[in-house]
Amino acid sequence: MDSDELLRQARMSREQAYVPYSHFPVGAAVLTESGAIYGGCNIENASFGLTNCAERTAIYKAVADGHTRFKALAVIADTPDVCAPCGACRQVISEFAIPYIILANMEGRVATYTAEELLPLSFTAKDIKQNKQ
Ligand code: THU
């Protein structure tokens, strides 16, 4: 897996961030099992809670195009250390069991984690009791 290419895409997607409130652009890019790359940026709203993070934008774009199996996700922002995904995004990363999460900052720091490391003991399909009626 070429993490440099994924990070390059994440950096490019960051340029599209719609951040009139926080002025904090974030970029992400997800690599599908079939080798396609989908980029995403954060998209804010005057109703702040409706903001969509870069990670979820990238993943949802890919899912909307028919991809549900992923190899890796990259995230980048201008943070002092590597950019840490928020809790909601960790839950979505866990849903799709993305094996490699590459976190980076604009100064070239990079660290790779597993979904399990980012969100241990996560709530997943296995926790939902199937009620047969
Ligand atoms: N943000 C992301 O896009 N991804 C993260 O993992 C952390 C936070 C965005 C949401 C909001 O637009 C801005 O960063 C500040 O919270």
Series of H and E elements: HEEHEHEEH
With strands numbered from the N-terminus, the spatial order across the biggest sheet is 2-1-3-4-5
Averaged pLDDT: 96
- Enumerate how many helices there are, as a single number: 4
What is the strand tally? 5
Question: How would you summarize the topology of this molecule?
Answer:
Elements: H1 3-14, E1 26-32, E2 37-41, H2 54-64, E3 70-77, H3 87-95, E4 100-105, E5 110-113, H4 115-118
Parallel strand pairs: 3-4
Antiparallel strand pairs: 1-2, 1-3, 4-5
The structure holds tetrahydrodeoxyuridine.
Q: Care to describe what's here?
A:
This protein has 133 residues and is of the alpha+beta class. Helix content is 27%, strand content 23%. The protein has four helices and five strands; from the N terminus they run H-E-E-H-E-H-E-E-H. A five-stranded mixed beta sheet has the order 2-1-3-4-5. Strand 4 and strand 5 form a beta hairpin. The longest helix is centred in the N-terminal third of the chain and has 12 residues, at 3-14. The N and C termini lie far apart (45 Å). The model has no long low-confidence stretch (mean pLDDT 96). The structure holds tetrahydrodeoxyuridine (THU). Tetrahydrodeoxyuridine (THU) is lined by residues 19, 22, 24, 26, 42, 44, 51, 53-55, 85-86, 89.
Descriptors for this entry?
4 helices, 27% helix, 5-stranded mixed sheet, alpha+beta, binds tetrahydrodeoxyuridine, 133 residues, globular, 5 strands
Write a compact overview of the structure shown.
The chain is an alpha+beta fold and 133 residues long.
